[in-house]
C-alpha cells in the first residue's frame, strides 16, 4: 500500500467523526494499542507541545523505512 493510499484511508477513518472531541477519543483509543514507549525518548526535543497529555515522538530511519516511537 502506498503512502498516498495510507493517507487516504486515514482521512476516511477520521471523516466519520462529527467533531474534534470524537476524533480525539478515536486517536486516544488508537494510542492505547501501542506498545509502551521507551523512556529514553522523553526529551524536550521530542516533546509534542500543546498536547492535552505529556507526549513524546521520535523518528528514526531503519531498514529503508521511517520508524516512529511514541510515549505519553
Question: Can you characterise this structure?
Answer:
- The chain has 72 residues and is α+β, with helices and mostly antiparallel strands.
- The protein is 36% helix and 19% strand.
- The chain has a two-stranded antiparallel ribbon with strand order 1-2.
- Strand 1 and strand 2 form a beta hairpin.
Which helices and strands occur, and which strands form pairs?
Layout: H1 3-15, H2 20-32, E1 56-62, E2 65-71
Antiparallel strand pairs: 1-2
Please tally the helical runs, counting DSSP H or I stretches of 4 or more residues: 2
Terminus-to-terminus distance: 28 Å
The whole-angstrom Rg is 14 Å
What is the N-to-C succession of helices and strands?
HHEE
> Which strand order do you get reading across the main beta sheet?
1-2
Q: Ranges with pLDDT <50 over ≥5 residues?
A: none
Strand count, sense and closure of the main sheet?
Answer: 2 strands, antiparallel
Give the overall form. globular
Could you say which structural class the secondary elements and strand pairing correspond to?
alpha+beta
- Annotation, overall tally of beta strands: 2
Q: Share of helix among residues? A: 25-40%
Q: How would you state the average pLDDT, rounded?
A: 88
Beta-strand fraction estimate: 15-25%
Amino acid at each position: 500500500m502506498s503512502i498516498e493510499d495510507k493517507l487516504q484511508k486515514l482521512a476516511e477513518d477520521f471523516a466519520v467523526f462529527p467533531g474534534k472531541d470524537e476524533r480525539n477519543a478515536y486517536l486516544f483509543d488508537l494510542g492505547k494499542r501501542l506498545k509502551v514507549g521507551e523512556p529514553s525518548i522523553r526529551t524536550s526535543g521530542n516533546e509534542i507541545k500543546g498536547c492535552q497529555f505529556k507526549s513524546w515522538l521520535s523518528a528514526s530511519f531503519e531498514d529503508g523505512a521511517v520508524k516512529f516511537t511514541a510515549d505519553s
